[in-house]
């Protein structure tokens, strides 16, 4: 009987447990697992509340449809009929520029213009930046010369204004970090490849669009996918497939040590022996657990920084809903001097999220902006959001309800050299047989990447899977 310990009950750890459970049931493999979670609730940041008829997400509200692993897991769990797509027909995102909301022009793919006229007539960019966009089409292919920040990469192609207006706000919403510190190879690998093959990002994107148009014409999938009853439903569905006796909550693991060809896991004054261990926790937590058995590996894991985030959800009445601009919401460049980084009009973004007479807004602090307000009370943080919503939207109405969700050191930051660090981590990990790593600290921060990392970790420890 092969015994495997999984440390961490977020979606990465749950996905590892689900993969093992599937293998055990389908192949009759002689294995068992124990999942340890330090808190009382499984699912990590997948937390959903129902408030005043609204589906309120404390953590991520969706996942990118293009990455298949989360949707595949949902279908495997029998949740295929619960998958809902974003209302892309109504998709419009605004950027706050000099205190005014300006819609992102049509054809702007992340930051790459593919419809020159739409971008050229947009008031979002200065004429200097528009000229840079035109000249960028003539950039020659460029050999890869190591890693660099997203900011330097984008500035080389389009100038500093594009970094401030688009690249930095867009990445803040995903990573909670800054374009000036995130690795282009780790965060935007496709763009790095485009530069190497085409030189011009615009030319590469236009070529990709041409290929897509020549392929069989099918309706484009929605950009984002969620679950009708909220993201927590995914975690709950996984848990329902696992053996209750294998799930140990309120159990902080103090140490994992290689011993007698396996691993000893110590939690809450008790120790148990396993053949293998999956560490599905933030890398700084993994570093703490491995600090004795592999100081080198622990140092590399500890070198991956994390940022904190705060989500503020506000519910309003029909009058506010009718007063808001159409679209998915807005981004706030740091140069605007606000503390809020973004706001989502949830009632527009997804169906089933709010009754017709309710407006549901999600507002975000992350990284330095979260740190600046972390010590404040929930009431004070809501006050900051209300004040900035009044300045940006003219919204003076008091919310029908407000919730503040704090996530301490929850978002991994892929700094320059991150992929090289992962290579070093892998070499050191291989010196510890029976150890696998999973989570958002490695090769993707979103829910699909975490699902994939958990499944891959389980398969690595049970190669016949």
Quick rundown:
The protein has 465 residues and is an alpha+beta fold. Helix content is 38%, strand content 23%.
Question: Would you give an account of this structure?
Answer:
With 465 residues, the chain is α+β, with helices and mostly antiparallel strands. It folds into three domains: 2-44 and 236-305 and 414-461, FAD/NAD(P)-binding domain (3-Layer(bba) Sandwich), CATH 3.50.50; 108-214, protoporphyrinogen ix oxidase, domain 3, CATH 1.10.3110.10; 307-412, Alpha-Beta Complex (Polyamine Oxidase, Chain A, domain 2). Helices cover 38% and strands 23% of the residues. It contains 18 helices and 22 strands. The protein has a seven-stranded mixed β-sheet with strand order 8-7-18-19-20-17-21, with helices on both faces. α1 packs parallel to α10. The protein starts with a strand and ends with a helix. The mean pLDDT is 94.
Ordered list of secondary-structure elements with their pairings:
Blueprint lengths: L1 E6 L3 H17 L3 E6 L11 E4 L2 E4 L5 E2 L4 H8 L6 E3 L7 E5 L2 E4 L4 E2 L2 E2 L2 H5 L6 H10 L13 H9 L1 H16 L8 H4 L1 H10 L2 H14 L9 E4 L4 H10 L5 E2 L4 E7 L2 E6 L2 E5 L1 E4 L3 H8 L4 H8 L3 E12 H6 L5 E3 L10 E4 H4 L8 E9 L1 H6 L4 H16 L7 E12 L5 H12 L5 E3 L9 H15 L4
Parallel strand pairs: 1-2, 1-16, 2-12, 7-18, 16-22
Antiparallel strand pairs: 3-4, 5-11, 6-11, 7-8, 9-10, 13-14, 14-15, 17-20, 17-21, 18-19, 19-20
Helix pairs in contact: 1-10, 1-18, 2-18, 5-6, 8-9, 11-12, 12-17
Proportion of beta-strand residues? 15-25%
Order of strands in the sheet with the most strands?
8-7-18-19-20-17-21
Q: Give the integer mean of the pLDDT values.
A: 94
Low-pLDDT parts are none
In CATH's first tier, which class of the largest domain applies? Alpha Beta
Supply the CATH superfamily name of the largest domain.
FAD/NAD(P)-binding domain
Number of strands: 22
Report on the biggest sheet.
7 strands, mixed
* CA-CA gap between termini: 15 Å
In helices, the fraction of residues equals 25-40%
> Given the helix and strand composition, which structural class is it?
alpha+beta
Write down the domain tally.
Answer: 3
Assembly form of the protein: single chain
């Amino acid at each position: 009987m092969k015994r495997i310990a999984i440390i961490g009950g977020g979606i990465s750890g749950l996905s590892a447990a689900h993969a093992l459970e599937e293998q055990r049931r389908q192949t009759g493999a002689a294995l068992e697992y124990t999942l340890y979670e330090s808190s009382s609730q499984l699912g990590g940041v997948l937390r959903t509340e129902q408030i005043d008829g609204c589906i309120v997400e404390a953590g991520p509200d969706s996942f990118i449809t293009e990455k298949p692993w989360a949707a595949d897991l949902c279908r495997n769990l029998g949740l295929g009929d619960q998958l809902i797509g974003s209302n892309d027909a109504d998709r419009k995102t605004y950027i706050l520029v000099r205190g005014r909301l300006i819609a992102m022009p049509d054809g702007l793919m992340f930051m790459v213009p593919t419809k020159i006229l739409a971008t050229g007539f947009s008031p979002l960019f200065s004429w200097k930046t528009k000229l840079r966009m035109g000249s960028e089409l003539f950039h020659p292919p460029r050999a890869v010369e190591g890693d660099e920040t997203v900011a330097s990469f984008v500035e080389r192609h389009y100038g500093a204004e594009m970094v401030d207006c688009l690249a930095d706000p867009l990445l803040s919403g995903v990573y909670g970090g800054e374009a000036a510190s995130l690795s282009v190879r780790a965060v935007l690998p496709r763009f790095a490849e485009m530069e190497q093959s085409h030189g011009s990002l615009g030319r590469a994107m236009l070529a990709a669009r041409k290929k897509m148009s020549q392929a069989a014409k099918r309706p484009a999938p929605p950009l984002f996918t969620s679950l009708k009853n909220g993201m927590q439903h995914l975690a709950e569905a996984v848990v329902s497939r696992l053996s209750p006796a294998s799930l140990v909550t309120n159990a902080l693991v103090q140490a994992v040590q290689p011993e007698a060809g396996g691993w000893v896991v110590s939690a809450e004054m008790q120790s148990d022996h396993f053949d293998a261990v999956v560490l599905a926790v933030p890398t700084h937590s993994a570093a703490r657990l491995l600090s004795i058995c592999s100081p080198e590996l622990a140092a590399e894991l500890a070198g991956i920084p994390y940022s904190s985030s705060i989500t503020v959800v506000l519910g309003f009445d029909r009058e506010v809903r009718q007063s808001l601009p159409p679209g998915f919401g807005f981004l706030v460049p740091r140069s605007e001097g606000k503390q809020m980084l973004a706001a989502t009009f949830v009632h527009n973004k997804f169906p089933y999220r709010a009754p017709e007479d309710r407006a549901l807004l999600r507002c975000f602090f992350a990284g330095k902006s979260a740190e600046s307000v972390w010590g404040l009370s929930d009431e004070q943080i809501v006050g900051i959001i209300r004040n900035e919503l009044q300045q940006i939207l003219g919204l003076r109405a008091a919310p029908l309800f407000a919730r503040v969700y704090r996530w301490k050191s929850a978002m991994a930051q892929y700094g320059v050299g991150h992929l090289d660090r992962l290579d070093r981590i892998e070499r050191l990990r291989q010196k510890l047989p029976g150890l696998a790593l999973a989570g958002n600290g490695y090769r993707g921060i979103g829910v699909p990447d975490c699902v994939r990392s958990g499944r891959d970790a389980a398969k690595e420890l049970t190669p016949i899977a």
